[in-house]
Amino acid sequence: MKPVFEYTQGMRDKETHYCPGCSHGVAHRLIMEVLVERGELGKAIGVSPVGCSITAHQYLNVDMIESPHGRAPAVAAGIKRVHPKAQVFTYQGDGDLASIGGNEILHSAERGEKICTFFINNAIYGMTGGQMAPTTLIGQKATTCPYGRDLDNYGLPMKMAEIVSCMDLAVYVERVALNTPANIRKAKQAINRAFEVQKLGLGYAFVEILSACPTNWGLQPAKAMEWVTRNMIPYFPLGQLCCPEEVK
Amino acid sequence: MEKKLMKGNEAFAAAAISAGCRYYFGYPITPQNEVPEYMSRELRNVGGHFIQAESELASISFIYGAAAAGARCMTSSSSIGIALMQEGLGSCVVCELPCVIINVMRAGPGIGAIQPAQADYTQVVKSGMNGDAHCIVYAPTSIQEAVNMIYHAFDVADEYRNPVIICVDGMIGQMMEPVIIPESRAVIEEKDIEKTKPWALCGHRNRRDRNKINSVFLNQYELEDRIMNRLLPKFEKAKKELPEWESRNLEGAEAVFVAYGSTARIAIEAMELLEKEGIKVGIIRPKTLWPFPDAAFDEIDSKTTKVVISVELSLGQMLEDIRLALEGRYPTALINRVGGILLSPVEVAERTKAVLGGMK
Ligand SMILES: Cc1ncc(C[n+]2csc(CCOP(=O)(O)OP(=O)(O)O)c2C)c(N)n1
Ligand code: SF4
Ligand SMILES: [Mg+2]
């Protein structure tokens, strides 16, 4: 009998610690499936962030290092200079990438580092228990904005894909979401394009992945997916902001 | 090998390249700018990589990545920049990643002054890092000694799988002296990293299990195990094998100076001035600050020595370690200046006479 569906060898045989309905597991799996399908699992090196996914190396079957909070792009750039043919990627949350690591991400994009970044935007600090993130929506409640994020104090949520796409050497920037099967398939294609950009040495590749954190949003998993559809996507529009001809 | 007149900072960079360092990441700060400038000029000629980082946080993060990838790498900075690096340095220690850091000290706290000082003693020796972490710290007194120590530091870093800091002050960084740069070492090629550093991140190539380099521990017993069974034995070994010092004129000395780096040169001149006046003073010059050369203090002449004097450009930061090493055997005193002011040999000599006079 020929199996029609198999556990990807990109994932290690270990149950994840993520909450039910969390998007981290889905994002992990997509990245690993892409690397396996590309035959590049053995030449990939991942950098995990400070956030719920810090121990992603328990699950991802590639060489990995944990980065101090927000520094993943610089860590990845250091690795890439030593192993120019490796597929080096960072995997970062919104607190990690948009707040404490804002400088590292912009400069890596500006230098056109030949690495990929997968940005898990769940509009909240998951790991520390639901504090406000730079991507928390106006009116969204978090433990450090119990009355909802207000414009006067914090301004508007950061649209990182748009910001990064201003850097000319960030040659591939796309925002995807993990809220529906169709969008999950598109997310996988975006991840594949990001690795292709890196393989061809075209420049920096950035994929923002709108994700759910049911636990800290206080929602059931299915409701959390609806929340992505209803609240996140209107503010963080999906689609490509830039894409080189070679990978279109 | 040919002797060349070189500026300290440039010689430091040249020594690193000779030692096989091919990756340098750094952010500008006075008084060490000639290090990144030299690296930006020369590294590409030997197939190396230079990146001017966006901050010291980024510099040390590049280092963390490059060291994890198996490369010989270095950064440099000064005082407040080293303060920013503490986060990444701690990660290098707990992940056991070898790297070399040059600190060309200026005066602090805060932005401070760009003139030479030694007030980072506590920061580098006791460590500003969170957790039980140590960097190995060398403190050269001349450009040649700095060059030799930097050349050697890459081997020590690899052997101990730990960051090594070369701690000099702005005076040694900025002055010029004749110096011999040691012969260039063979550089480990990328394809050989797997063999020489099996723990490094190279991609598993479907030939082995994945390597992971981690500093977060969900199980605190695993962290205790890392500290007790991997870091501590290494730190203990370092304390046994690494302390280095130079001592002079200890026999029959009335007082003993303890001084490192550029201050040791001034203390030696003061010692000569005092000798002409018939006052016999000796000196202990620590060459490693961590581990501190405790054993040096056993060489003091107990029949004649009345006082041990720390001569330093800080508020008695080294004096604390001297007292710990002495374990109450001798009274101590402090001769110092701070804020970027240097001591002169005459000032040290005069203040020594006052110290001795006060002891009757
Ligand atoms: C230097 C530092 N500051 C703060 C923290 C605490 N901290 C851990 S995770 C985190 C936020 C993570 O949020 P995010 O990046 O959005 O990731 P998520 O957990 O949502 O996936 C913070 C602030 C830390 N570990 N290190
Ligand atoms: S707290 Fe949120 S981001 Fe973290 S594992 Fe749970 S659902 Fe996922
Ligand atoms: Mg988050």
Give an overview in words.
The complex is a heterodimer of chains A (248) and B (360). By secondary structure, chain A is α/β, with parallel strands linked by helices. Chain A has one domain: 3-Layer(aba) Sandwich (Rossmann fold), CATH 3.40.50. Helices cover 37% and strands 17% of the residues of chain A. A seven-stranded mixed β-sheet of chain A has the order 2-1-3-4-6-5-7, with helices on both faces. In chain A, strand 5 (170-177), helix 7 (181-200) and strand 6 (204-210) form a beta-alpha-beta unit. The mean pLDDT of chain A is 97. Chain B is globular and about 75 Å long. The mean pLDDT of chain B is 97. Chain B is built from 13 helices and 16 strands. By secondary structure, chain B is α/β, with parallel strands linked by helices. Chains A and B meet through strand 1, strand 2, helix 2 and helix 4 of A and helix 3, helix 5 and strand 10 of B. Strand 2 of chain A pairs parallel with strand 10 of chain B. Iron/sulfur cluster binds next to helix 8 of chain A.
Attribute tags:
heterodimer, A: 248 residues, alpha/beta, Rossmann fold, 7-stranded mixed β-sheet, 7 strands, 37% helix, globular, B: 360 residues, 2 domains, 8-stranded mixed β-sheet, 5-stranded mixed β-sheet, 16 strands, 41% helix, binds thiamine diphosphate, binds iron/sulfur cluster, binds magnesium ion
**What are the low-pLDDT stretches of chain B, counting only 5+ consecutive residues below 50?**
none
In terms of structural class, how would the helical and strand content of chain A be classed?
Answer: alpha/beta
Q: Secondary-structure element order of chain B, as H and E?
A: EHEHEHEHHEEHEHEHEHEHEEHEEEHEH
Which fold does the CATH topology of chain A refer to? Rossmann fold
Give the mean pLDDT of chain A. Answer: 97
Task: State the domain count of chain A.
Answer: 1
Q: What CATH architecture of chain A do you see?
A: 3-Layer(aba) Sandwich
| SS strand fraction of chain A | 15-25%
